[in-house]
Amino acid sequence: MAARKPGLIALFDVDGTLTAPRKVVTPDMLDFMKELRKVVTVGVVGGSDLVKISEQLGKSVINDYDYVFAENGLVAHKDGKLFGTQSLKTYLGDEKLKDLLRVDLETIKSAPISAIQGTFIEFRSGMLNVSPIGRNCSQEERDEFEKYDKVFPQGWDKTYCLRYLDDFSEIHFFGDKTYKGGNDFEIYDSERTMGHTVTSPEDTVKQCTKLFLTKQV
After folding, report:
1. Beta-carbon neighbour count of residue 72 at 10 Å?
2. Has residue 148 got a pLDDT over 50?
3. Which of 77, 85, 205, 211 is deepest in the core (most CB within 10 A)?
4. 207 pLDDT band (50/70/90 cuts)?
5. What is the pLDDT of residue 70?
6. 163 is in an annotated binding site
């Protein structure tokens, strides 16, 4: 077995990168990630909480990857163990958080919507996930109101996880929403990363095979 390349990590988005959007990871992708871990350190960074990431990548996710960064890295696991946390409540304090919730509720109240379904504000450790139309809406309805979707402090996008990766001089990030305004853009565009845009899990495998698993002549 080839030795891991020191100082290099391959970091992956979840939806559209390791899985089809909002779908469960395939056995083939799990097998591929096992092979990839033999040659490079592998991490996952997702905006969702660990429960949702586990639903997509499996209950053993924190042991299947070297690093797992839930909520953009606000809940960080390394080698299966929790080693970093931050929360919106701790960062803002109770009063400022209440003020923010009031503003969000007013935004929902005034939003131009024709139908509402389910939960309107999802309180995660590091963000308020706001949906004026309700989080039980269809994907098409969700896309229409995506501009309202996430509220978090500046710098709490996916680049937040990079503070835990100072030991790596070469950080490759793979994501599908790498365009400006997409939730992968900031980390893709960061000076600390080598960004790779993928179009599907199959494309992720193809690009990683070429970069890391093909012997250079």
Report:
1. 28
2. no
3. 77
4. very high
5. 96
6. no
